[in-house]
Specification:
The protein has one domain. It is built from eight helices and no strands. The protein has helices spanning 3-33, 38-41, 55-70, 96-127, 134-150, 159-168, 172-189, 193-213. The longest helix has 32 residues, at 96-127. It is globular and about 55 Å long. 34% of the residues are buried.
């Protein structure tokens, strides 16, 4: 592994950690807004990435996929992962069904907003004749969109699964059992070429549209 590869990996991973932390902060903040202070009491309404990190989803899988991406494998351009799920006590929610959906969607919405802000920042750097900073903003915007759409996949414990649980009337007990094997299912599903291509197409398509707003594509 060359020093250039290590530098690229660390830069991308640092951006991933920051974006994932803000994603989880969005969940925890929305839970608090909906009346549940469980996450706050556990220190999850925080910008400290350590309190959100999951060994497999935040460390092992993202670093592995980054390495494969920069090594020219078929995973090129792919970076997925997750953090520890934000704990929610449904008895504290004012409207359990709708609030659960709002909490789940807060993370992806944060990533969408961050992608727009990062692309806007890239444009500002170009206007200020600081082109060396723009590519980092564009890369982090793309990572933010990947996190957004990856988490919308309706497999526990990803955010999209919470919407599916509410819509189908699934019990929380059954959902909790599915979460136990969900991580394995997510990893297996992401090996399917059609799933990889679908996530790549949606992410790239959205990125192109957003980038065009700022004259970057």
């Amino acid at each position: 592994m060359t020093s250039e590869l290590i530098q690229k990996l660390l830069v991308s991973y640092s951006g991933f950690i920051l974006l994932l932390t803000l994603h989880e902060l969005g969940h925890a903040w929305m839970a608090l807004r909906c009346g549940d202070d469980t996450a706050k009491k556990l220190g999850r309404v925080s910008l400290n990435p350590i309190v959100h990190m999951d060994l497999v989803g935040t460390v092992i899988l993202p670093l592995l996929m980054l390495y494969l991406s920069y090594s020219g494998s078929s995973f090129r351009g792919m970076l997925v992962g997750w953090a520890k799920p934000v704990p929610v006590d449904p008895t504290k929610l004012r409207r359990p069904g709708w609030d659960d959906i709002a909490i789940a969607m807060a993370g992806p919405v944060v990533n969408l907003v961050l992608a727009v802000l990062l692309l806007g920042l890239a444009r500002i750097f170009l206007i200020l004749h600081l082109p060396q900073a723009a590519p980092y903003c564009k890369e982090f915007a793309l990572i933010s969109l990947i996190l957004c759409f990856f988490n919308l996949i309706p497999i526990p414990p990803l955010d999209g699964s919470h919407v599916l649980r509410v819509v189908t009337g699934m019990s929380r007990e059954l959902y909790a059992r599915l979460v136990g094997v969900g991580f394995i299912v997510v990893i297996l599903v992401m090996q399917i070429p059609a799933m990889q291509q679908g996530l790549h197409s949606v992410t790239r398509g959205t990125y192109k549209v957003m980038a065009s707003w700022f004259g970057l594509f």
